[in-house]
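Last lecture ended with a question: if I hand you only a sequence, what can you say about the shape of the protein? Today we answer it with a concrete record. The protein is Short chain dehydrogenase. Below, first the input exactly as provided, then the predicted structure, then a couple of comments.
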Amino acid sequence: ASKAAVNMINSSLAIDLKNDNIAAIVVHPGYVVTDLTGGLGDVHTDESVRGMTSVVDKVTMADTGKFFHFQGQEMPW
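The predicted structure:
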């Protein structure tokens, strides 16, 4: 439920900020290897951060309100 709430907040932000030419997106970091995951995961922190940075660098106003995976694919919510 909390992830859906974040997506809903993003949708509201996208509407509120559009006239100011500010895009609002959500980026999924992937299943990251951390202490919280007990060392499990599919991606290391540095790769996740590089991917999220790449996604953010490519955002246009056409992307506002969308949800992306750190590898760049748009994700449904």
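Comments.
1. The CA atoms of residues 68 and 74 lie 4 Å apart.
2. The chain has one domain: 2-75.
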